[in-house]
Amino acid sequence: MPVLTRWFIKTALAYFVAALVVGVVQAARGGAGINPVYVHLLVVGWITQMIFGVAYWMFPKYSKEVPRGSDRLAIASYVCLNAGLLLRVVAEPALARHPGTGFGPVLALAAVLQWLGGMAFVANTWARVRER
Amino acid sequence: MPRTSRWFIRASLVYLAVGFTLGALLLFNKGVPLGSAVPRLLPAHIEFLLAGWVIQLVMGVATWIFPRFGVARSAYGSEAATWVAFALLNGGVWLAGVGPLAPGHLGDVLPIAGRLAETGAAGAFAANIWARVRASGLSPM
């Protein structure tokens, strides 16, 4: 299992636990902006990140020289996805509690970072969807 | 990786790209407003990422890696049933995801048609892969 896959999967496991903790908080006392954070910790932090890590590991090789495609794109995918998600976890509830504060641009930055993470994964994985 | 799996997985990557783009617009709009129409993208965002990306990827990878019936093309089960599942799923994703944006009564009817198509896809896929859920030739379990 490549190093980056281990990072993806271990981070995904951490998000899995964190998402369920947030789910407990949400069920116990609610809170503005908590529900989208709970959902995205699960579907982006846990499920999507687990898929990214396993696909990077298991999909057919790109070539003998660079079996997993571009390492830079793969690392960019990991960094952008997680930086964006963490910013969202902080900024979305904060903006819901304090509208009109500086958290708005932070949330927009979170959106751009997660988008870049997804696009980097697609760009690096596309050519590995092949017969062998 | 068989041809049907490549279609499932490449389609799922397209939905990942489109679904993430819609999600980025929705989230950006929460922080820095872009327009009042942006929240209407939410059903498409959810449908593209849950059914178009995750479910479709699972179907493609299962078709690829589950135990086969030998080395022939038919070893993956019925190719026709797999294509039916592919067509129904993707038609369903569009109808259920984009249908709510249609005007009037159509906006209520198209998502139902989409969900019916997705149900048909699930049935065709499950029926076709059922017999491949078994011990492989290499494993006693």
Could you characterize what this model shows?
The complex is a heterodimer of chains A (132) and B (141). With 132 residues, chain A is mostly helical. Chain A has one domain (3-128). In chain A, 77% of the residues lie in helices and 0% in strands. Chain A has four helices and no strands. Chain A has helices at residues 3-29, 34-58, 71-97, 103-125. In chain A, α1 (3-29) runs antiparallel to α2 (34-58). Chain A is elongated. Chain A starts with a helix and ends in a 7-residue tail after the last helix. The mean pLDDT of chain A is 94. Chain B is mainly α and 141 residues long. Chain B has one domain (3-132). Chain B is 69% helix and 0% strand. Chain B has helices spanning 3-31, 42-65, 79-98, 106-129. The two termini of chain B are 24 Å apart. The relative contact order of chain B is 0.14. The model of chain B has no long low-confidence stretch (mean pLDDT 92).
Give a nutshell description of this structure.
The complex is a heterodimer of chains A (132) and B (141). With 132 residues, chain A is mainly alpha-helical.
Helices and strands of chain A: which structural class?
A: mainly alpha
Describe the biggest sheet of chain B? none
Q: In percent, how much strand structure appears in the residues of chain B?
A: under 5%
Q: Mean of residue pLDDT of chain A?
A: 94
What would the average pLDDT of chain B be, to the nearest integer? 92
Strand content of chain A: under 5%
How many beta-strand elements of chain A?
Answer: 0
Helix content of chain A: over 70%
Order of helices and strands of chain A: HHHH
Topology readout:
The complex is a heterodimer of chains A (132) and B (141).
Chain A: H1 3-29, H2 34-58, H3 71-97, H4 103-125
Chain B: H1 3-31, H2 42-65, H3 79-98, H4 106-129
Helix pairs in contact in B: 1-2, 2-3, 3-4
Considering the chains and any ligands shown, give keywords for the structure.
heterodimer, A: 132 residues, mainly alpha, B: 141 residues, 4 helices, elongated
